[in-house]
Amino acid sequence: MDHYMIGWGHTRFGKHTDSDIESLIVQAAREALEDAGVDAAEIDAIYLGHFNSGMSPQDFCAPLVLQVDERLRFKPATRVENACASGSAALHQGLNHLASGAARRVLVVGVEKMTDAGAAQVADSLLGASYRRSDLVETSLGFAGVFARIARAYFDAYGDHSDVLARIAAKNHHNGARNPYAHLQNDFGFDFCNTESARNPVVAAPLRRTDCSPVSDGAAAVVLSDASGLASARRAVGFRSRVQATEFMPMARRDLTELEGAAHAWRQAMQQAGVGLDDLSFAEVHDCFTIAELMIYEAIGLTPKGQGRRAIEEGWVTADGRLPVNPSGGLKAKGHPVGATGVSMHVMAAKQLTGEAGDMQVASPQLGAVFNMGGVAVANYASVLERAR
Ligand code: COA
Prior knowledge:
binds coenzyme A; nine-stranded mixed beta sheet; 11 helices; 389 residues; Peroxisomal Thiolase, Chain A, domain 1; alpha/beta; 32% helix
């Protein structure tokens, strides 16, 4: 391990009527710097994960990070966009910068402000993460329509899994109720998630509202360091491995019943870390829709293809199961402010590994993994993390 997270910050995710992109960035980044005990003057580079795609008028926003502290003036600050994986993309750029030897401390921030835009605008903006040329059937359904198509392909192959999706939703809402940073903190329970109702309508068949991540505002930040920052760090979480893999975008070139890009990135990350699934204490994975989490069980090798339901039905992935998946509540409950999500997942993992996860804490964590994706497993980022001190 050569690269580490030595400090982190996180706003609560949700509808922030009194905050804008700038204030969300400042809150998370300032907290991360303070947490790391790093002076702004020591930061060599800044990366900002941000998607936008028309949701917010402030498109050019990497320079807003300078509002955190005037000593950040004249440092290189760059926005990174890779759909729903923009946060991990920014983090990977920060790690690449460290690896180049040109930086010793890098500040990475992820941010999104989604709730100012109307529902139709948000739906259209999120479709910026799809293959607009031919993949869209019903644009009014937004990205839920894209994952509904994936769910239908999966159901056609393996039977109706609506109840399985409801179980995943119920698990993540249960976990999210223990996460003070989560957008949705209601423990809805299986019956609510499994029943179509006025409070849980079908959004894009077969997906109900509880199968979708919410539209959220929020920011998360980390301070990355090379080994020179370890001695003075209060505590640190290192990258045992981290992998990026890009999949074909057009659905026509894909088997819609599996997430091959996710499987590839995950396999490589595990190999590079020299670990297997049984070595992991938890995983934070990209459950933008419950069908995604189900298919990720299969992509990461928890079960063979078509048998992902066993992971949730047999309790393997609950907070006290053999591999807790999304102890933070995941995107489903924590929220999914697109550009912030990848950074947030790494912050949640860092909190687990350092024993700072409060009511979300899993027992005696040794190693954790993060899987963040943009599009339908098009931009795939996987990392294996370990406490370094
Ligand atoms: N899960 C559970 N409850 C949700 C929810 C969700 N995803 N989204 C909103 N709610 C709740 C709200 O908290 C609110 O509850 P309240 O009445 O008790 O206050 C209620 O549902 C209505 O909220 P509202 O914002 O009006 O819901 P909506 O029907 O307009 O939006 C979705 C719901 C699912 C359509 C919207 O959250 C969405 O589009 N999600 C997908 C976002 C997306 O595609 N992200 C990119 C993924 S790759």
